[in-house]
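Input:
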Amino acid sequence: MLGIIIGIASVIAMTAIGQGAQNSISSSIESIGANLVMIMPGAARTFGGPSAGRGGALSLTVEDADAIASQVSNVAGVVREVSSRKQVTALGTNTNTSIMGTEPSYTTVRNVSVDEGNFITAQNVTSGSKVAVLGPTTRDDLFGVGATGVVGQKIRIAGTEYEVVGITVAKGGSGFSSSDDIIYIPYTTAQRYISGNKYLSEIDVSAQSSSASTQVQNDITTLLLNRHNIADPTKADFNILNEADIISTASSVTGTLTTLLAAVAGISLIVGGIGIMNMMLTTVTERTREIGLRKAIGAKKSDINKQFLVEAILLTFTGGFIGIVFGWLISFGVGYFNILQASVSLSSVILAFGVSALIGIVFGYYPARRAANLNPIDALRYE
Amino acid sequence: MIEIKNITKTYKTGNVEFQALKGVSFTIKDGEFVAIMGPSGSGKSTLMHILGALDNPTSGTYFLDNKDVSTLSDDELADIRKDKIGFVFQSFNLLPRTTVLRNVMLPLVYDGVDVNEREARAKKSLILAGLDEGHFHNLSNQLSGGQIQRVAIARALVNEPSLILADEPTGNLDSKTSEIVLGTFQKLNKELGRTIVLITHEQDIAEHADRILFIKDGLLTADSTTHSKRIANHDLK
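Output:
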């Protein structure tokens, strides 16, 4: 029965963890921004994820972004970004964090909202104001965990003083760069005081819908190749990442992994089933006299068959039940220790019960038949 | 009522044929207490298996209550055993880890009787067999040999069979306990009119019956009323 317990427990736990991993990845990606198309300077990278665009060629301009906004259809929003990493000081404290030079559309395209104060305004951008919006982790690092009244305080970024005008809502995030440890300033300010040039580190575009994202990606590619006077697409000085593609790649990877793990669990179940069969065969042998007696009393073959089949199914059901409890505990434990939010789905529980019963029937069939076919005379004489 | 006519039984193992019964005929009327006696290898076990509907004869007929059971299928034989025959074995054959009461209730389970009626009938049967109520919930390992055999007798009675077949029922018991068990059989026969067939190889045991059938080498050598019938004292607790 141990084999069944382990098998079922692993099936439940694996599918729950696999499902949880998929959900976690999807929501991680979605929290960055829905229907996102990311344009970065430099040659195409293989699956590198949305990075802050350190270094890279100087090829994307503000005018490129303007062109995208006006000429590409099905674009919901365009965000210009100038990012870097700098030392930041506040009164007596300091930290090293990402500096994201951006504009108001960042909140909608990149799914960020403000907890206190305001985000960067269009006026800030036009004027190149020295204002900053802090992520909650940066706020904690500079002013103390959960500090209030931070809005209005002053910080220094790379030697220049900025006024804090807002704090963003915590988004959590693990795996990808945490979006809570960051400072937002107007991109024009970043260009003037930090990067010293007119180029952008990244242009983020949100498509009207996820189905439009491929078209948007293609149109942007054509547009930029044109603007940059590049005839050969393979020699593009920029590369585009489509969020939808990333999600489906990640999903298929976790999907494959889950299937693999489930297959391993399945094998363990079969082994468990064979164990059950052996156990039942031994039981039948040990109870030969009893079977002979039952037949002498008037039990028919079908009665004996039924009796042992039911016993086998009860065994596997019990093992399955214990396995489901264990599987649930493992998924719960994984969530509790914050490795992953695993979710045990009802369908996997039903599947587990079904599989247990099936194993009982399949692997109990042969022993039950053996029992039923015993000759009562011989059985009664069995020592 | 039992009518055996020219029963033969041949066993084939590979190319070797062995005739266990070579043509046996007799009739047993309702209410008789008959012993079938013979040495080992005489064919008495084979005869018992046929009488008990555990096996079919190779040829000949066996009419039990005017029904020919000599050619029935396995399932039909099982039904005959369930309805018409009660077995008492030499080695008791009670279910282990099961109470006395539940052991006696077992035949009724296969008869589809509901649980309350099963319990009532089982209790009645146990009392008839001479076991007192205090033991009803004991397990078999808490009882003496004589008590266990009485439970087996109660179980054989519970579905009210036409025939009680006892195969060396005192083989594993001492002489005092044997007396008690044989006395129980005599009581069941005398006071309740039960038909009892007792298989044995011992003369003194056989003489507790009213009639003895002698069997040797697959044939009946004698069929007579017991000369000096022994009455067992079954009140010994």
